[in-house]
Amino acid sequence: QAQLVESGGGSVQAGGSLRLSCVASGTRISLVCMGWFRQAPGKEREGVAGITTYGGSTYYADSVKGRFTISRDNAKNTLSLQMNSLKPEDTAMYYCAAIRCPVATMQPLGGWWGRGTQVTVSS
After folding, report:
1. What's the pLDDT tens digit per position in 63-81?
2. pLDDT per residue over 32-43, tens digit each?
3. 113 vs 45: CA distance, rounded Å
4. d(Cα 62, Cα 80) in Å, to the nearest integer?
5. Residue 27: its pLDDT value, please?
6. Per the omega criterion (within 30 degrees of 0), is the bond before 108 cis?
7. Does residue 109 contact residue 99 with C-beta atoms inside 8 Å?
8. Tell me, what's the pLDDT at 112?
9. Backbone dihedral region of 103: left (phi > 0), alpha (psi from -120 to 50 degrees) or beta?
10. Contact by Cβ (8 Å): 96, 78
11. For the chain, how big is the Rg over CA atoms in Å?
12. Can you give the three-state secondary structure of 29-71, one letter per residue?
């Protein structure tokens, strides 16, 4: 059974950095475009960043552009999200998921989601 497991979340002060990882098992992520989403309490889920199958193209939401970097290592079956200059408004549960290509649509594919990792940024 295909699974995605996120890690790397935590609590940081504004201006700090975190690196999230998403490890896949049961299938190869090289077969699909991948993305990171987040959801804060009381808010709708937001597509944060997406990346094509071999990393040739990426998408970022305006709210994170210039601060977050999505990457993937297909050999390690891993998706990453480097988050710099974190802001309190970045506080949310972060999820990785398979998405449809082109990645700018940030449309989930096949319901393949991780359980999430919490990011909390204090001011």
Report:
1. 999 999 999 999 999 999 9
2. 999 999 999 999
3. 13
4. 19
5. 86
6. no
7. yes
8. 84
9. alpha
10. no
11. 13
12. HHHCEEEEEEECCCCCCEEEEEECCCCCCEEECCCCCCCEEEE
